[in-house]
Design brief:
This protein has 406 residues and is an alpha/beta fold. The chain contains 16 helices and 15 strands. Helix 1 runs antiparallel to helix 2 and helix 6 packs antiparallel against helix 7.
Length: 406
């Protein structure tokens, strides 16, 4: 930088109204000042505007005088801070450092939640560049039945001292303080996810369909015991699946339609699918459940693909057998990869969402794996989780704002 040049940071605050930024930058433009950095935020009609500019030593005094008069006229406060060349070069050198996106989500977010997260950010030697609210404005009075959402997104720069420890600390906070948190590196792929794959049972729907079928067959308790052991990862999924399907032998095919028409849909599925389709995402159901119910959800919500297990039906009765290969954890991850290849999508652009132990291979394979209202083993292993709100919480982890998706 030429010794005759001056670097000046101005900070403007006050009641926000149209024309403030325009009036101040017009003065800078009149003196041919070069803007090196600019940022603006509005919180409850209060403006916070920062501009770092470079000008010559001859014009710096006139610029500051004109800006001061204009700020008085606009009824805003202005503060001037000189910046040295070395300070500026240090700031420029930060460009090579990684950027991270931290998303904090819950029914309600408190000051304690924000303080805990930002303390860990500070402890890891990171710097917060920006904070924005993704959810709509929160009314002071809310009915108990309201399914409120509150989400804040932070843009953080730097290299964590211990990335794994930071991730673990965030997951521990979420588990004990009743909020959800996501830590993602802010790469090109994070900004252009294209394929979202969902487990079905206890993810898209609030039940395990095989348990519903077992109740109709009179073997509900026996099947539930096997299901719970499998979802906790205590027994092999293939073995448990074969045992459970065998217990359904003789059940009438009409029961499947009855169950499908009364499936308890998870909160937020309709809103989420509406947004994902409008935004051009490809969506898939990859389930250890059954194709009959996956196809029902496909028709209802517009999923692009369904991969699940096929029950064998002869003469209108379940035989207690299945047709084709079992969709287990290994197969789920394989199907995710195949769909990404078929759609010509980088694996880093994929998202997987599930709740059970058999979802872990798929969650770890995806660019973003989200444990949704998950079993303890799954939540402890996954890097991202949603446990406090509905499935539309996925939209906030992608970076959508309510103002874009209403």
């Amino acid at each position: 930088m030429d010794g005759s040049n001056r670097l000046i940071l101005i900070n403007i605050s006050g009641y926000d109204h149209p024309g403030v930024t325009s009036a101040l930058t017009e003065i800078l433009g009149r003196y041919d000042a070069q803007i090196l950095d600019i940022g603006q935020a509005d919180i409850h009609h209060t403006l916070s505007l920062g501009i770092l500019f470079m000008t010559t030593a001859d014009t710096a005094g006139d610029i500051m005088k004109d800006l001061l008069f204009k700020a008085y006229e606009l009824n805003v406060k202005i503060r001037f801070t000189p910046v040295s060349a070395s300070e500026y070069e240090t700031w420029v050198s930060m460009q090579g450092k990684n950027r991270w996106i931290i998303t904090i989500l819950g029914r309600r977010l408190t000051a304690k939640h924000i303080a805990m997260v930002t303390q860990e950010v500070s402890d890891q030697g990171l710097n917060i560049d920006a904070i924005q609210r993704l959810t709509g404005r929160i009314p002071l009075k809310m009915e108990e039945s309201d399914r409120s959402r509150s989400c804040v997104e932070m843009s953080v720069r730097g290299n964590p001292r211990d990335h794994q420890a930071m991730q673990k600390k965030f997951m521990e906070m979420a588990a004990t303080e009743d909020f959800d948190i996501s830590l993602q590196e802010d790469t090109m792929y994070r900004r252009c996810r294209r394929l979202v794959c969902f487990d079905m049972d206890s993810t898209l729907i609030e039940t395990e369909v095989i348990d519903e079928l077992a109740d109709r067959a009179g073997v509900g308790q026996k099947v539930r015991e096997i299901t719970e052991r499998a979802m906790r990862g205590e027994i092999d999924f293939r073995e448990s699946f074969t045992e459970r399907v065998a217990l359904l032998k003789g059940l009438d095919e009409s029961v499947l339609q009855e169950i499908a028409e009364n499936l308890p849909i998870t909160e937020g599925v309709g809103r989420m699918m509406n947004v994902l389709k409008r935004a051009g995402f490809k969506t898939a159901i990859i389930s250890g459940g059954f194709t009959y119910f996956g196809n029902y959800l496909k028709q209802k919500f517009g999923f692009d693909y369904v991969y699940a297990n096929e029950l064998e039906i002869i003469d209108g009765k379940l035989t207690g057998h299945y047709v084709g290969d079992i969709v287990d954890g290994r197969r789920k991850a394989e199907l995710l990869r195949l769909l990404a290849q078929f759609e010509n999508i980088n694996i880093a652009q994929t998202i997987a969402v599930g709740d059970g132990a058999n979802d872990l291979p798929m969650l770890s394979e995806a660019g973003l794996g989200i444990a949704f209202h998950a079993k303890p083993k799954v939540k402890a292993t996954a890097e991202q989780s949603i446990s406090t709100i509905g499935l539309d919480g996925v939209l906030y982890f992608i970076g959508f704002k309510d103002s874009f998706i209403q």
